Amino acid sequence: MSDKLDANENIINETNPFENHIRLTSKYELNNAVQPLLTDLYQISMAYAYWKNQKNDNAVFDLFFRKNPFQGEYTVFAGLEDCLKYIQNFKFSTSDIDYLRTAMPQYVEDEFFVYLENMNLNDIQIYALREGSLVFPRIPIMRIEGPLPIVQLLETTLLVLVNYASLVTTNASRFRLAAGEFKNLLEFGLRRAQGPDGGLGASKYCYIGGFDGTSNVLAGKLYSIPIRGTHAHSFVSSYNDLSDLHDRTLKSVVSDEMFDLANLSMDYLTQLEKFEFNFSLNEANRGELAAFIGYAIAFPSDFLALVDTYNVLKSGVPNFCAVALALHKVGYRAKGIRLDSGDLAYLSNKVRDFFKKVAKVFQLDFFESLTIVASNDINEDILHSLNMQGHSIDSFGIGTHLVTCQKQPALGCVFKLVEVNGRPCVKLSEDVQKATFPGKKNAYRLYDKEGIPLVDLLTRSDEDEPKVGEAFLCRHPFIETKRAYLSPSKVENLLVPVWINGKLVQENMDSIDGIRERVRKQLNRLRNDHKRMLNPTPYKITVSRTLYDFIHNLWLDYTPIGELK
Amino acid sequence: MSDKLDANENIINETNPFENHIRLTSKYELNNAVQPLLTDLYQISMAYAYWKNQKNDNAVFDLFFRKNPFQGEYTVFAGLEDCLKYIQNFKFSTSDIDYLRTAMPQYVEDEFFVYLENMNLNDIQIYALREGSLVFPRIPIMRIEGPLPIVQLLETTLLVLVNYASLVTTNASRFRLAAGEFKNLLEFGLRRAQGPDGGLGASKYCYIGGFDGTSNVLAGKLYSIPIRGTHAHSFVSSYNDLSDLHDRTLKSVVSDEMFDLANLSMDYLTQLEKFEFNFSLNEANRGELAAFIGYAIAFPSDFLALVDTYNVLKSGVPNFCAVALALHKVGYRAKGIRLDSGDLAYLSNKVRDFFKKVAKVFQLDFFESLTIVASNDINEDILHSLNMQGHSIDSFGIGTHLVTCQKQPALGCVFKLVEVNGRPCVKLSEDVQKATFPGKKNAYRLYDKEGIPLVDLLTRSDEDEPKVGEAFLCRHPFIETKRAYLSPSKVENLLVPVWINGKLVQENMDSIDGIRERVRKQLNRLRNDHKRMLNPTPYKITVSRTLYDFIHNLWLDYTPIGELK
């Protein structure tokens, strides 16, 4: 993979005049929707109010969420590369400025638009978790520092780039946990995604979250992800009978002999009927047989047939086996079948029995282990249910529920101001759980001697960091009686620099496969009780003694003594 | 609006050499992700198998869904313009072909790629519902006819363009029904959307579905949709006290007199405290007051303040009223406030009482009807609940649940082959409800004399169409005993030509505002029992006697006589 990336980088170097370029995972540029105007109007209104009041303070914002998605207890952070592409290309175009002049009130001063047009991100500093890291509620995923009006302008775009990427990566990782390490997982969701880009993002981030490939060809082209697919029901129903085959011959793998695949397949179908496979020649649809033969002639080394257009056990599977036996005669091995309806546990077991019987009758061992793909509205719960029932599926094609994150279609990342010119900023609101942790902070992950994460720890940015082998008091952020001394065997500083003084920090960027591997490793190391399906144990988020006192004193200072409502 | 569109068209004409161009709603081109490779790999695999077998049959496909979303009984069709832009620009690029050569098996014949590279859509005929029409299960939304391999290649992209557009438009229309005709509805969902394009699409289609505007600036630029917004909590918390104001003055509307808005506001705050508005000067946060003054100086004619950063009734509203009174002194009228947390019914009523008291005490009637905007995780159910409780909200800012369609994040449109070379195609599958209606069909909507839709009717394409004033036997498609003679006062042929022989049918294209108006009118005409929230009555889909017999005979022909399982 690293070779491939390097190749792409070279291509970019040739066409990209910027000295400082990101490790793009692709040589093809997308998405042109990601630009400074992809934001909420109020960001620009606020920029004007700040500008008008000459309020160019140094501000620190935290990007974080308050609750893990899917009733789970972990989240995978993804979208960093997309954020940094946006940061790198941040520039209001002339047509943007023209549009804003018409869209904002007429009394907005003209110099403001000059200010916008000249805006750049050279004074912005961004620290972030490495992409693909596990992240937990209230830990800053990104910490962004710089002139208040400018950092404020980044909010919406960063949120839209992080929210869905992290949500769908997390979702994919949960499907992977449910399916187990050895099943093949394919993302088939493009047609049901929330728009073209939702589909593209899903394909990329499901791969990062642990899927093996996608049906989405453009995602394959853009991100070098494996693409997979066979044929649809329409392919089968477009054939009426064997006379629809214009060319029925296939050349032997080992000699120049030409075989009539249609005749061979009909012979095997007749044999299968005689061996009591519980179907009759009459029941096996001849259009379906013709379609399978046509497909096998086109893809002799990759024959995988959709078998539920008419009837799986009476038609689809007998027809598939007839063609697979014929292919074998010519020197090719069929791949397997796909089920797209019905009771997947029951049918997959019945199909496996059928395959085993064919293996025995025809003395062809490979038939026993032909691939069975299933793809009918599968979600995480169905994967768990299939595991409990027992099934014979090797590979899952998963679409709608995966890409739209049906269980929870949005992640609630927010972007909160925590410090202005060194002064902590507080937001309380009417809902206590919406209160923010003020002040510029550092974030650490403390590990035990087996390399298992113990807790995450937030400190004030000017505190000493926790040290390996030294006891550090970690406090629950809300409950004063919950606290413990921890002596970590390893301390990880979670927030690493990614954009400093207008330059990308290359060494903290990763390839798509590097990110995918980080997800896999970190999930492996996370304790099982944090990952289980039902009522998982929350992973502990703690604060230092200093930060605890700082936060609670500020909250008290800012709260009017009122009613107990 | 039509003027604006014409202006845009002229701009396109200058740069677009195609004689036949679509009524683009924007002069800015998006989305570059929509291209022939935005498809599932199996479409290209099938194209190869068809090509290899010289199977260039004339095929008819129906695009339809089986179930209305959101437990409702109607769907709004949207996305047609996006589909036709894709159709118009359909062309495999050289880099697409290069990629496919590497991604497909090596034995795929080279001439196939030449075939793909030369492919065009001149032989494709597309009939569709007018965009913004109501549509019901199993009615073909689009009927596409042409060479089998080519039409098959369009499937995934058309589905992704129709599915989310129709889903989110339908969702927005349901929010509109819940909020009532006279509330102001604003879409604020960008940051939680499923990717940048999900956000853009949501903004466009929520407007079409009945929203009044969006916060999404790029959507405003691209689609000429009204954009709206004020400021965030961070704006408030970035101010510490009145000393953060660099310029406190505002010029009078009527004279050259300069006013110190900070002093004026403090004066009014002191007066408010004295008039027993149940807060103390001490409780009203001075940083919040400074922020409001700063914002009012920047936007004196558009002052709308977010009042829940610290405490709505003790700080936010008193501070807002102080600044609004000061603005009035200088000659400006404030707009109102926004609530983003807490019990919205309770708080909005309390705020309204506050405003009414100010109106009375200061003899300023307009204060009574200042705008109250609410925007905290609002969904359709919450709108209904607020209506039942009673509230004083004028305007709703709605994000997450609207744009991600939390109640059901995907619409299940499918694309099914129904006819090849005049022969009907059947797909049965293991699930009966997945069976398709074979054959090329026409679709009609029959109206009563008040212009209310009675039923939708499917016929075979070669049947006579139902006529005004003549009784026509309409049958339930599945239940043989359900049938009725209907004598319509109006008959609408639902499927109109939109792409014929490589040309767009301009007269069946609509402006974005035309589509929006169609949604509004058609929903108004639909009977209330089809629209109600709880257990709505299904709108009747019927088939002609001829089509009924045709379908049922085919289903029987294709079903093996098996077990009753």
Automatic annotation (TrEMBL), chains A, B:
* Enzyme Commission numbers on file: 6.3.4.21
* Residue ranges of domain Nicotinate phosphoribosyltransferase N-terminal in the record: 37-163
Cofactor(s), names only, from the UniProt record: Mg(2+); Mn(2+)
Pathway(s) where this gene product acts: Cofactor biosynthesis; NAD(+) biosynthesis; nicotinate D-ribonucleotide from nicotinate: step 1/1
Q: What Gene3D superfamilies is this protein classified in?
A: Aldolase class I, nicotinate phosphoribosyltransferase
All residue ranges annotated as the Nicotinate phosphoribosyltransferase C-terminal domain in the record: 440-550
Concerning PTM, the database record says: Transiently phosphorylated on a His residue during the reaction cycle. Phosphorylation strongly increases the affinity for substrates and increases the rate of nicotinate D-ribonucleotide production. Dephosphorylation regenerates the low-affinity form of the enzyme, leading to product release.
Its BP terms in the Gene Ontology are:
NAD+ biosynthetic process via the salvage pathway
Recite the UniProt keywords alphabetically.
Glycosyltransferase, Ligase, Magnesium, Manganese, Metal-binding, Phosphoprotein, Pyridine nucleotide biosynthesis, Transferase
Q: What does the function comment of this entry state?
A: Catalyzes the first step in the biosynthesis of NAD from nicotinic acid, the ATP-dependent synthesis of beta-nicotinate D-ribonucleotide from nicotinate and 5-phospho-D-ribose 1-phosphate. Helps prevent cellular oxidative stress via its role in NAD biosynthesis.
Q: Which family does it belong to?
A: Belongs to the NAPRTase family.
Instruction: Indicate what this protein is called per its UniProt record.
Output: Nicotinate phosphoribosyltransferase
Which taxonomic lineage is given here? Eukaryota, Metazoa, Spiralia, Gnathifera, Rotifera
